[in-house]
């Protein structure tokens, strides 16, 4: 452990941040950039803050190769606000959108879209308890759908959906809350991408939106509250209301950190190794079980169970005593879950596997 009193935090979010970033923020807290005050106290319309926000955007543009015809927005509030904003902004009366339902978050986004406007289900993994992505030959792609929505990484069920070839060339929207910056993506495959910050970007309360400028021209709803209209945030360059300034500052540090590690390709490489090691261990074990179908396994949320479910409470308790924190599955899914986002080092995975081996061994006796 880099610090003796720090645990490995496997929580799904708010998630662990690199210690070096926390230390930098701590060191700068009383006096940021020689200004004699902290970032927490600095006005969002000051030159210094605007320069920070511009630089944060440039870093993200460079990490993800975001083309100039896409806007990047730094919005206050949770990712879930997007579940409502997307249909309200982009669907006109009489139009519909397709939702691929592969876990809890896409299910909730679909419900919200139906509640506010109109939407249909492309396919749902619910009958299979979200343990796989429905086979593509069963998907319903309506020609007249305004957009197709999916969640490439379902955080709760640990289900990953690669960009579907059948979406190519169609207007696609993705919730990348738990996977942005963890693997390479092609921005132009999407009209809009959003991600809450609390997994791989910063602390909770900031949501990033990357949106095609041409797609914004669809919006003509005059009844939208200004705060829920993407055009407001584009026009005011994310400064219409006070943005979550500290989160933006941490995002800036996190983007620099990803860049120092070698960028997205290197994050992806590490994530494949980390998750691969844990899945390999699970597959070889007779004590634990990873039930998500292999082709759909998440790279960052590894869900598993003890085959004897009565062991799980002890598992969590003993794990915590061993400095392995927040391994409980989401309340909607149960079981166990290890979230291995960008900031989780391989040492954390090794420590977890060591513990799991010892635990299984002691219970098997
Ligand atoms: C994929 C995904 N979408 C949406 C959310 C909801 O985020 P928030 O709590 O910021 O609304 C989460 C939270 O974990 C998530 O993992």
Description:
By secondary structure, this protein is α/β, with parallel strands linked by helices. The chain is 35% helix and 16% strand. It has 10 helices and 14 strands. It has a 7-stranded mixed β-sheet. It has a 3-stranded antiparallel β-sheet with strand order 11-12-14. Strands 1-13 form a two-stranded parallel sheet. Strand 6 and strand 7 (159-160) form a beta hairpin. The structure holds pyridoxal-5'-phosphate (PLP). Pyridoxal-5'-phosphate binds at residues 12-13, 78-80, 105, 151, 155, 175, 177-178, 196.
Instruction: Count helical runs.
Output: 10
Walk across the major sheet and give the strand order: 2-10-9-8-5-3-4
What do the pLDDT scores average to?
Answer: 96
Largest sheet: 7 strands, mixed
Helix content: 25-40%
User: What is the overall shape?
Assistant: globular
State the separation between the terminal residues, measured CA to CA: 30 Å
Question: Could you tell me the strand content as a percent range?
Answer: 15-25%
Salient structural properties:
365 residues, alpha/beta, 14 strands, binds pyridoxal-5'-phosphate
Short account of what is shown:
The protein is an alpha/beta fold and 365 residues long. The chain is 35% helix and 16% strand.
Give the topology, please:
Layout: E1 8-9, H1 19-28, H2 47-64, E2 70-76, H3 81-90, E3 97-101, H4 104-116, E4 119-124, E5 148-150, E6 153-154, E7 159-160, E8 172-175, E9 192-196, E10 206-212, H5 213-216, H6 230-235, H7 245-260, H8 263-284, E11 288-289, E12 301-306, H9 312-321, E13 324-325, E14 336-339, H10 346-364
Parallel strand pairs: 1-13, 3-4, 3-5, 5-8, 8-9
Antiparallel strand pairs: 2-10, 6-7, 9-10, 11-12, 12-14
Bound molecules: pyridoxal-5'-phosphate.
């Amino acid at each position: 452990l880099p610090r003796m009193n720090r645990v490995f935090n496997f929580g799904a979010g708010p998630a662990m941040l690199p210690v070096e970033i926390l230390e930098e923020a701590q060191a700068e807290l009383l006096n940021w950039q020689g200004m004699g005050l902290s970032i927490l106290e600095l006005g969002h319309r000051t030159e210094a803050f605007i320069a920070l926000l511009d630089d944060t955007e440039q870093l993200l543009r460079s990490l993800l190769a975001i083309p100039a015809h896409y806007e990047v927005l730094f919005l206050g509030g949770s990712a879930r606000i997007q579940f409502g904003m997307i249909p309200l902004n982009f669907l006109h009366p009489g139009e519909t959108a397709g939702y691929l339902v592969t876990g809890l978050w896409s299910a909730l986004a679909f419900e919200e879209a139906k509640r506010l406007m109109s939407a249909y289900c492309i396919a749902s993994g619910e009958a299979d308890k979200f343990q796989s992505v429905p086979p593509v030959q069963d998907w319903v792609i309506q020609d007249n759908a305004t957009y197709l929505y999916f969640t490439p990484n379902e955080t709760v069920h640990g289900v990953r959906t690669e960009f579907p070839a059948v979406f190519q060339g169609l207007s696609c929207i993705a919730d990348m809350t738990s996977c942005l910056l963890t693997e390479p993506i092609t921005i132009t495959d999407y009209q809009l991408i959003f991600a809450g910050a609390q997994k791989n970007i910063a602390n909770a309360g900031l949501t990033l939106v990357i949106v095609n400028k041409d797609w914004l021209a669809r919006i003509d709803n005059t009844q939208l509250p200004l705060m829920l209209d993407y055009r407001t945030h584009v026009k005011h360059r994310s400064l219409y209301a006070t943005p979550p300034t500290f989160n933006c500052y941490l995002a800036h540090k996190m983007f620099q950190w990803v860049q120092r590690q070698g960028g997205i390709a290197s994050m992806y490489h590490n994530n494949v190794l980390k998750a691969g090691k844990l899945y390999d261990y699970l597959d070889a074990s007779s004590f634990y079980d990873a039930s998500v179908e292999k082709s759909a396994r998440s790279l960052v949320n590894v869900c598993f169970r003890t085959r004897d479910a009565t062991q799980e409470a002890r598992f969590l308790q003993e794990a915590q005593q061993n400095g392995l924190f927040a391994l409980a599955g989401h309340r909607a899914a149960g079981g166990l879950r290890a979230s291995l986002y960008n900031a989780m080092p391989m040492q954390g995975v090794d420590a977890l596997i060591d513990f799991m081996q010892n635990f299984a061994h002691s219970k098997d006796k």
